[in-house]
Here is the input.
Amino acid sequence: MTAPVLALENLSVGFRAGGREHVAVDRVSLTVNRGEVLGLVGESGSGKSVTGLALMGLIEAPGRVSGGRILFEGRDIAGLPEAELRPLRGKRMAMIFQDPMTTLNPVLRVETQVVEAIRAHERVGAAAARARAREALVKVGIPAPDERLRAYPHQLSGGMRQRIAIAIALLHAPALLIADEPTTALDVTIQAQILAEAQALCAEMGTALIWITHDLAVVAGLADRLCVMYAGRIVEGGPVADVIEAPLHPYTAGLIGSAPSRNARGVPLTQIPGMVPSLVDRPPGCAFAPRCPAATPDCAAPPPTALAEPSRFALCRHPLQPARFT
Amino acid sequence: MLTYLIQRFGQALVTVAAMATLVFLGVYAIADPIDMLAAPDATPDERAAIAARLGLDRSLLVQFGTFAWRALHGDLGRSFVYNESALSVIVQRLPATLELALTALVLAVAVGLPLGLWAGLRPNAASGRTIMTGSILAFSLPNFWQGLMLVLVFAVTLGWFPAGGRGETVNVLGVETGLLTLDGLRHLVLPAVNLALFKLAVVIRLARAGTREAMLQDYVRFARAKGLSPARIVGVHVLKNILLPVVTVIGLEFGSMIAFAVVTETVFAWPGIGKLLIDSINRLDRPVIVAYLMLTVSLFVVINLIVDLIYAGLDPRVRLSEAA
Amino acid sequence: MSRPEILPSEGLPADGPPAASARVETAEPVWRAHLRAFFRSPGAALGFAILVLTILAACLAPWITPQDPYDLANLDVMDGTLPPGSRSVSGLLYVLGTDAQGRDMLSAIVYGLRVSLVVGLSATLVAATLGSAVGVLAANAGGRVDAVLMRLADLQLSFPAILIALVLLAAFGRGVDKVVIALIAVQWAYYARAIRATALVERRREYMEAARALALPRRSLIVRHLLPNCLPPVIVVATMQVAHAIALEATLSFLGVGVPVTEPSLGLLIKNGYDYLLSGKYWISTFPGLALVAVIVAINLVGDRLRDVLNPRFSD
Here is the structure.
């Protein structure tokens, strides 16, 4: 097996505020292989978006990567200076964001924004860059690309804008695309189209894809593997079908139970009581324990890692399936 | 849109007419200019002759009627002091003021934008704070005092620039300008800086606030994710977003620069219309005061009208609400 | 008639609506808290100290100045344009030097401060009262009255203050009272606009609904209920406007159209010294200028802090 495109080893991200450092991402480890789709699922505040930004080196002060390694194509890029990260960004690794209304600059034409992304990494003439830009728009299924290139973002629909963002992200056939809830702000029908297109394009280019979302249903049909984040930690990981079929962690089970699905008609949706703990008052042991139906007093101690086949794990003392502890 | 145009134009005309009335009545209520014009030992007959020559012996209403009728024909009266058309007295001095105001405007934008950008990118650094403190001082300290300090430091103490006057000018297409001679430029530096300071502070504030806001936007994050250089992100993505409000405000403020030139021109003995106004007030040269005020008021009304129309043209919402 | 007990209670969270904290019943403790918060900022405390000192000096001018600068009997032209630290023929120390007439600059400045402060404060006080009245009237009357008043305010605000003041002074001529009138004319519109905006918001609040429901007379509604809650923004705007008024008065006097030579303010002192500035006799203009700057900066520091403490909904 070849080396993974990306391997996170105990990545931590902290935000300094009021003289204390608050941990937003806590010892996260994961790997993504070439062409693989990884779903990163969690509620808002779970640290999933911060993880994505950390991978791109886009954490801004007062935040910082406070520990761990980010091995991208075999090289540790954590703490690399801006000048060395820039050739990677947009070229080898790319990212798209949640709100297509705001990711494109409102006062620049679409063409400018596509062409500058090409010329940031390649020396090409204006005419050639324009042709490339047009081609990229066609690839993501945008009709009348010439007209769209001349347009300003506000003249386009949300779906169209997100397609343009995807086109920009995939311009240089990156090894990794991080998609931070890119369809949340869109209509359901457009959502499905964009999901399918992004997946197809990544498969075609061999681009690995990290799809960050709070919506399990979205990744269920899309991802190969799934990581569930809660309060800054990955609490469960494994192949998507296995995790959804038989979750190890009570939190994953809660997420699945609270998601509407076709085969559970008439059954009331369950609800996870309580709220995600804030960065400030995080319990020392298992962060989910206060909301967990299976919690016992010993959950106040740091949770052990439970392992199960095939290549599944969960951070839980009381896994819901048979598992062994390390 | 046409209705809107006519409506706005009508409003502008009414404003000018109302101001004309107010200005006339106000200015013609000032103390008797004959005291200034007649020799101290003049006999009552001599005084009456002067009054008759200037039309000051008739009732205020008749004077206003004459004034209004002539004003409609582009005649704002004759200066008592210069004994020529008040309008032409002003027009002769207009190039000096325009030269000063335009230079100051360019200076305010050219210096204020980069400083505001810098302060917006580093709001907590010492440099950013210094820029803000400077802009607050430029904003709140009286302009004439700033001018005095410029004179004291750069003219009196250091001797780098002249303290007043316009210097050598050349005639280009019938307009006297000091922009083309070295001496003229040297004379322009201090007054232009003085007049620019207040607007500079405004530009810095606007640019700083705009930059801080823009830097938090997703499009800046996306631009970084694209691998763009910081120079391109700031120079294109951020700058273009803050340029529009800054240019709009500055365009609007051009009229007030002409008004504020009164102060700068007095400090630096700059022979423009502002200094003319102050001299005329002190000499009770009513026609020139009236002509100046009419000119400035019209300028303001025109600027406001243009800005309104541009907004209506740019923003479809304005058009729609007016049509409804 | 007793006040209804339906007013919102105090003890709002720190970021809660600030105007609520000025309610009359709870005035004492709230004011004390505001006072403490105010003096927590060293800049504001310094500004406040400077202000108190200048106001005291201005009030006590005849007793604390070495010389009555406008009693010609005291002046000796032989003492003209002496640099700071010189002594007069009679042995009087001129700490800040003298002007062309041999007037002690320190005394002239203290007397000048008096004129500047009186003009700035009285103009602001009248403008604030007048403007607030217009604003409340417009907000309550609505309809045509509102439209006409606000149109007038907008029209005036579209011209720079200095231009309006120049027009008025060109018409009136010089004089302390005339400068005050010009400053009032320039300022009222700010208050009218600010108060109208606040009043429109306050009108819709629950306590006003409640007071209306009790069928309190209209005048008592406005005077006892609406007005006190519109006060904090007026206080902040007024503080800043005092600085503007003083600066504008100084500018007008510098231009020679403001106060008369018999009652020189700081601006006129600076004008008088300007000719000497060019020949290197800096003190005649510079010291009155520094006094002016100190007063303006101090007021701004105090006003900034007041805005933070009272935290009105509109700022800048």
Notes: The longest strand of chain A covers residues 20-32. The domain at 6-92+172-325 of chain A is CATH 3.40.50.300 (Rossmann fold). Chain A touches chain B through 30 residues (CB under 8 Å).
